[in-house]
Sequence to fold (430 residues):
Amino acid sequence: MNIEDLIYLIKPGESEKLEFKEKVVKNIHHEIAAFANSEGGTILVGISDSGKIIGTNVKDAIEKITSSIQSTMPPPRIQTQKISIDGKDILVITVEKGATLCSIGGVVYIRAGTGIRPLSIQEIIMLSSEMGTVHWDEIPMIPKEEAKSEYISWYFEKVEETRGKTISPGDRDRYLRSSGAQKDGKLTNAGILFFTDATQHITSAKIRKVGMSEEGPLWSEEYEGPVWKVIDEAYRSLIRDIKKVDIITGTRRKKIEEYPPRAIREALINAVAHRNYTISADVKVLIYPDRLEIKNPGSLMPGMDIKDPEHIPRNPSLSSLLFDTGYIERFGFGIKMIEEETRTHKYCTVEFKISQGSFTVLFRKNIKAALDEMDHKILKLVQIPAKSGEIAERLDLSKNTILRRINKLEKLGLVEKKGSGPGTRYVVRS
Fold:
């Protein structure tokens, strides 16, 4: 950082990533830890709260900071730099975002606006889960006797069917412990998700399907129960909702789903398996006229690159249970499989949207690829409302052929019907 950079940094004033200090205060390590536990930041020592340059003894300040952060576990990573302006020395402390949470005497602080605050236990668990330092799904929670026997029986039947393993009744507890579903005589969070009606204990453990317009939600449905049942019911319902479009290829006509079913199922499984359950929000499936979004709470795990995804599970025990029952076929293959299925679909594209608190798989209709020359001719004719018979006559095709093509254009959201009976006309959707 040079003098110009420093002046540019000071000018807007303090923020979530910038703190001014006239001198090194006793609790400076609280400020440093809070930056490390948030998004990182910069502390300028020798600057008043109003942004006035007053200077500081840099050597003395560094000694005090070095001593102060020794009580932080683990010690945050910082860099220091001295910059002089008009004979006044400024100490620039750059704090890196931590890979794990830093605590001071068992208390974890984060940056909140231009101040700091301690986190609650729930917030610590949530952040640790997001950073991958705590596996929430491995925490023992409720007596193992609360597991439903029919769900356990289903699980071991699927293990035998899918993985070829026959587990005797006497070995079932041992197997559930090794899979991470049980610990210390209790069901873990993974066990709760798999062997109970999960929302009784984890209220956000569900999938919500929402019909959307660009103005907002129109309707919604919820799917609850053990996670494997939630996946199956949401998928079956979604496949019923997905329209099949008539595609004309040469002289042949075939029906094809708007979106690739295998890719959708994989996206649902990934959303359930890799979401952050400490965030009080459900998995959402948003159905728009031109796209389908599957959105789960929690971003990608630290160190994971969407362009070259590796298997870094947020919920390793839950992932193991889903693998045992055939929902996950190959660890680390989900995103690649979604991409491959969509690439071969032709009438759909996919993209992945990553934010700090969520991960979204977005399937978008590739409408242009679904249209041929005749479709374009029909769209041109229905700029003004027209009857199917009129269109058929203008294009020298049968009325049934025109109706099939109009039906496809309606499903693609390009044409709408006006009126009914003999007065029915079709027009380009505005």
Remarks:
- The chain has four domains: 3-119, 136-200, 207-368, 371-428.
- The mean pLDDT is 88.
- The longest helix spans residues 149-163.
- The radius of gyration is 29 Å.
